[in-house]
Amino acid sequence: MKNILVATDFSHDAYCALFYAAKLFSSRPATFHILHVFDEYTPLDGKRTMMFGSKKRLKEIQIASEEQLTRTFHKIVLDSAHPQHRFRTISKKGILTKTVNKLIPEYDIDLVVMGVKGQTGAKEIFLGSNTMQVVNTVKHCPVLAVPRQIDFKTPKEIAFVTDFKKGCEKKTLAPLLFLASLHRATVHVMHITEEEILDKDQESYRKLLELSLKDVNQTFHRIHDFDDKARVIDTFLDKLHLDMFAMVYHKHSFFDRLMREPVIRDVSMYTETPFLILPCRD
Fold this sequence. Notes:
- By secondary structure, the protein is of the alpha/beta class.
- The protein has helices spanning 12-24, 55-80, 96-106, 129-137, 170-182, 200-212, 229-239, 254-258, 269-272; strands spanning 3-7, 30-38, 85-93, 111-115, 143-146, 157-162, 186-193, 217-224, 244-249, 275-279.
- It has 2 domains: 3-146, HUPs (Rossmann fold, 3-Layer(aba) Sandwich), CATH 3.40.50; 157-279, Rossmann fold.
- It is built from 9 helices and 10 strands.
- A 10-stranded mixed sheet has the order 3-2-1-4-5-10-9-6-7-8, sandwiched between helices.
């Protein structure tokens, strides 16, 4: 991973995500592209959003965006102090999801990083609406969601939550394997199931996953007889003191089903543990 795209709305949570990313890659060269996307309705310096935009207001917002990006640039350079890191700022008018998808191939982006909550800090919104929109539309690049205002901790213990149905190939797991190797982490595979035994396809995927993880430390955990998958994962992360967790996202995936659980909004894992979302490349 050499090119990291970090989206910001200039909230403290967004800066914490940028700082986390810089610390995560502190041992290797990397370029961080700090992105702010705005339109004529973007709040400006705490002022209330106007019902109708104007060219004058749009220009004011663009200038403010560039000024705030410059301040963010100087702050992260001072705070991270890694000579192998480069930071560049990008201010764009448009829609966040479309802009991110356009920039990924343009800058050969390897990872998108976002804070879980934005300026609204709405606790009832899982992952934050912007983060979920990016996750739903970015198809070929992993997304790292960083909980708000957490202290950086080197990810030595990483959970990989799977149903052994897809997402077990090395190509899909490459970002996870990279981070695990970079930090010499152990990957704890967590399989949640309501069945007593794996079916033939699941057993094949389990063996494939074992093969894909052969170059990193690994453990396998099977959990069944549960009420809420989200709470089970939350307990698992807390019990093993895990520093990060990952899932593969594709239509009808375990991640997709998990997001529909009402309890997802009440568990604590999303406010304490960085979440790596991998696109399925099987």
